[in-house]
């Protein structure tokens, strides 16, 4: 996913609609930096993006591919987000390892925090894995909603819409 020419500080954003409600995305020169899932009203979402990313410019055309994939997802299709270039922590950092491993969880599947931490070679770090996912700036693109407790309970979800949105997303993928 390539973005249009960015302003000097390198941030652009889009606020767009999906069948589940408005979403937002922010990109840096390194790639997609933030995704905000449906929860807010459009005006509130614009204000939030402006507050958190001052100087970011609206650039819907730069996000056309991502917008279509998000709309497809919330309409029950199975788009892939694999080709979306993301601005992630370094691959040697714990959070970078967790986010990259989480990104590999296929549509319609789940894993536990413990299995995900084992997948990165840190089987004792299930709680730290949950903490890293709690700070995931790219929900949906990095599908942290697919990570649950070992007993199958949903666990937490960092989206302001909370666990209810996580459960809705998992139900959508189970259809």
Description:
This protein has 175 residues and is of the alpha/beta class. The chain has 2 domains: 12-74, no CATH class; 94-174, Arc Repressor Mutant, subunit A (Orthogonal Bundle), CATH 1.10.10. Helices cover 35% and strands 15% of the residues. The chain has 6 helices and 6 strands; from the N terminus they run E-E-E-H-E-H-H-E-H-H-E-H. It has helices spanning 42-52, 64-74, 94-103, 113-119, 126-134, 162-174, and strands at 12-18, 21-28, 31-36, 57-58, 111-112, 147-148. The strands form 2 sheets. The chain has a 4-stranded mixed β-sheet. It has a two-stranded parallel ribbon with strand order 5-6. The model has no long low-confidence stretch (mean pLDDT 92).
Descriptive terms for the model:
two-stranded parallel sheet, alpha/beta, 6 helices, Arc Repressor Mutant, subunit A
CATH topology of the largest domain: Arc Repressor Mutant, subunit A
Give the terminus-to-terminus CA distance.
28 Å
Under the CATH scheme, which architecture of the largest domain would be assigned? Orthogonal Bundle
The largest sheet is:
4 strands, mixed
> Order of helices and strands, N to C?
EEEHEHHEHHEH
At the first level of CATH, what is the class of the largest domain? Answer: Mainly Alpha
Any idea what the CATH superfamily of the largest domain is called? Winged helix-like DNA-binding domain superfamily/Winged helix DNA-binding domain
**Could you say which structural class the secondary elements and strand pairing correspond to?**
alpha/beta
Strand-residue proportion: 15-25%
Q: How many helices?
A: 6
Evaluate the radius of gyration. Answer: 16 Å
* Helix content class: 25-40%
